[in-house]
Design a protein that fits this description.
Chain lengths: ~300, ~425
């Protein structure tokens, strides 16, 4: 024990054995560590464990089944269909989020817009991000209803003869849910890219102008390289989030019509809560986790490179 | 950094560790449900009924039970139907299911398979309960696991104004009349259609309420000796009949993603002439569109059928947890809910039909359609073959997806029924 002299000359004693000193750092990180273990590591390990058993929850005694659940999932034609739909849905959504987000961010950052109109557009463009998934689903179901606004406009302009049930028609259902997801997600890109645009030093553009660069050359050689770290981070995160999109699909199509909008998320949910095949659902979840880990790996690598 | 700061950091570190330890202990310690203190027993009752009954109604009934049984306290666990379903499934696994549980017949088979439900036949025998007063019991392998407290039937609703505009003077009573009337209403033009068929797979109960109801109304069955029998001529006739309505473009657009709520909304808005729906929605329709004139009648039967008509129903069922430490007290609550007086009160409040044959709902102050529905119910018989089947929701979803292929022109009716039969067989 050592004594510590403090202001006013009063000595207070604090434990200072080597053991306490060694344990102190662990004490600091223990609340976070415990939370990570309880909320993340334990559930993940449990799900991996479940995926190797014949079934859980619905059976009083579970037996080790090896990779049987993984084989069952991989050989299920609906799983392959869900993988295909998820890929189309995700790639289209992320690309459109990026293009729309960048387009709107450039517009809001443009000196051509006055302060008032910029504020108005900023509010309008960010609106979709303020709605919850349930509201977005209801809104789009109304918009795309056979008697809804979109069909009314299309019929009135003579582009179609009768209203189309966009969510319920096999040929248009995937397109409909993708458009809805694009609408719901682009503001996040827009806000982040706008912040990035506002951080690009003006002198870079001035130097480019002096060198005789036009708008497009400036965009390609100044704006895009400056935004690159943000674009890569956002695209990676969006890829992860969109792959796991569940609420919007479930609330609009439920994976239908037939299986035309079945995603990995809805496929897994149905396995667990409709078929009560919790082990197969766990196997499916582990497969999604592995896919997400690959994307996360590139995300972390990119972040490190940025640092 | 000075020594004082170092020491403070160490103390803070120890405090952090203490907080973490508290967190773990808090996470690990749980109060066991149904604990006994000073001779009093507390039992839990999970259900989705409380939010659907008038405010305070279930609490009042439970209060009456507690007064009659001073040693038993009932803790109500209430939530929406879907939450209670998920909670019940997972609670069985963790052994935390409430002592008394509100059940839907479609859940029973799976919960029994999980070993979650108490065999009520034993409670009935040991308590000397007169089971003949029960209108029905949901049994698995001859043993009772659920008792329906209130039944909600699904008759046919018809929009009087639309039918009248289409030149239809009375609701159809046969399938051919129905097809003719549905075509006539659809011919009115605009967004109006004769019938609405919700086939959304999020909740595929349209298969039970809107497709199989036609089969049951004509005395048919989709099972034979407890096994699927979808390839029978009666089932094929039913599916062909529904397909003929689609071919005639007499069904509201977008059926593949419509849910029960869409059905009620479109009927309330006057967009569809006819629907098969729960009586529970009468008040909702009246409130949303007080000017809508509508009637209810029995579901039309196949031409030439003159026997009793099956009428689809859903139940608020009740059961007891197999892991309950207070089964005797839990059974007392079941007995109370099924008693003549309480059952009459619950069915009156819920606008349903009682599970006790001696109970009579008081519809004197309710919408006259309820009394009319009671007559339809008494003239026919409650029919819902999905009750007690394994993974009932998934069976409906299988049927739904295959039927959508028929409507999309990708499959014939007979091929669809064969495919669904094979899928169902695998699940049985």
């Amino acid at each position: 024990m050592t004594s510590l002299r403090v202001r006013g000359g009063t000595a207070r004693r604090f434990p200072s054995s080597n053991l306490v000193r060694a344990l102190a750092p662990y004490g600091f990180i223990s609340p976070t560590g415990i939370l990570i273990i309880v909320l993340m590591i334990v559930p993940i390990v449990m799900v991996i464990g479940y995926s190797l058993l014949d079934n859980v929850i619905t059976t009083p005694e579970s037996k080790f089944a090896g990779l049987a659940n993984y084989i069952a999932v991989f050989t299920d034609p609906n799983f392959l269909n869900a993988v295909k739909n998820t890929l189309i849905f995700t790639v289209c959504s992320v690309v459109a989020h990026l293009v729309l987000g960048l387009g709107f961010a450039l517009m809001l950052n443009s000196p051509l817009l006055g302060r008032l109109s910029r504020a108005v557009f900023r509010v309008i463009f960010i609106l979709p991000w303020l709605f919850t998934a349930a509201i977005i689903a209801i809104l789009w179901r109304l918009i795309l209803d056979p008697n809804g606004v979109i069909n009314y406009v299309l019929v009135q302009t003579g582009l179609i003869h009768t209203g189309v049930a966009w969510f319920a028609t096999p040929a248009t259902a995937l397109l409909a849910v993708t458009v809805m997801n694009i609408w719901a997600g682009y503001p996040f890109f827009m806000i982040s890219l706008l912040a990035g645009l506002q951080g690009i030093p003006r002198d870079l553009y001035e130097a480019a102008t002096v060198d005789g660069a036009g708008w497009f050359v400036q965009f390609r050689n100044v704006t895009l390289p400056q935004l690159r770290p943000i674009i890569v981070s956002m695209a990676t995160l969006d890829l992860l989030w969109t792959t796991q999109q569940f609420a919007l699909i479930w609330l609009t199509t439920g994976g239908g019509p037939i299986n035309f909008t079945e995603m990995l998320s809805t496929f897994t949910y149905k396995l667990a809560f409709s078929n009560f095949e919790f082990s197969e659902a766990s196997a499916s979840a582990v497969i999604i986790l592995l896919g997400s880990l690959i994307v996360a790996f590139f995300y972390v690598r990119q972040q490190r490179a940025q640092d | 950094m000075g020594k004082e700061a170092h020491a403070k950091r160490r103390v803070l570190g120890l405090l952090g560790a203490a907080a973490a330890a508290t967190l773990i202990l808090a996470g690990c310690s749980g109060t066991a449900g149904g604990s006994t203190s000073s001779g009093k027993v507390t039992i839990e009752f999970s259900q989705w009924w409380e939010p659907e009954l008038p405010a305070g109604a279930l609490k009042k009934l439970v209060g009456e039970f507690e007064t009659a049984n001073p040693n038993i306290t009932v803790k109500l666990i209430s939530g929406p139907y879907a939450s209670i379903q998920d909670q019940t499934t997972t609670a069985v696994a963790s052994g935390t299911m409430a002592d008394v549980v509100g059940l839907d017949g479609a859940w029973v088979s799976d919960l029994v398979k999980q070993g979650g439900l108490d065999n009520l036949s034993k409670e009935i025998t040991s308590s000397g309960y007169d089971a003949s007063q029960l209108s029905s019991q949901v049994k698995i392998s001859g043993s009772t696991y659920m008792i329906p407290v209130v039944n909600f039937v699904y008759p046919m609703f018809t929009n009087d104004d639309l039918l009248s505009k289409a030149g239809v003077s009375a609701p159809p009573t046969t399938q051919s009349e129905f097809l003719k009337d549905a075509k006539a209403v659809s011919a009115l033009g605009g967004p109006v259609k004769g019938w609405i068929l919700p086939l959304g797979t999020t909740n595929p109960n349209g298969v039970q309420n809107d497709i199989m109801s036609w089969l049951w109304a004509s005395g048919g069955s989709m099972l034979k000796n407890g096994e699927p029998n979808l390839t029978s001529s009666k089932v094929e006739d039913t599916v062909n009949f529904v397909k003929s309505l689609s071919d005639a473009k007499a069904i509201a657009d977008g059926a593949a993603t419509l849910q029960e709520t869409d059905k009620v909304t479109q009927f309330t808005n006057g967009q569809v002439g006819m629907m098969i729906d729960s009586l529970a929605h009468i008040d909702t329709i009246r409130k949303a569109n007080p000017n809508l004139k509508f009637s209810i009648s029995a579901i039309p039967a196949a031409d030439g059928y003159s026997g009793k008509r099956g009428i689809p129903f859903a139940s608020w069922g009740i059961g007891v947890s197999n892991k309950s430490a207070h089964k005797a007290e839990a059974w007392k609550l079941v007995e109370f809910m099924m008693s003549k007086k309480t059952n009459s009160t619950v069915s009156t409040l819920a606008h349903g039909f009682p599970g006790n044959t001696g109970s009579t709902p008081d519809f004197s102050t309710s919408d006259p359609l309820y009394s009319q529905a009671f007559k339809i119910y008494q003239a026919g018989y409650p029919a819902n073959e999905f009750v007690g089947l394994p993974v009932a929701n998934e069976l409906m979803r299988d049927f739904d997806v295959e039927f959508q292929k028929v409507l999309a022109g990708d499959e014939s009716v007979s091929a669809m029924l064969k495919a669904t039969q094979a899928q169902w067989k695998a699940k049985f």
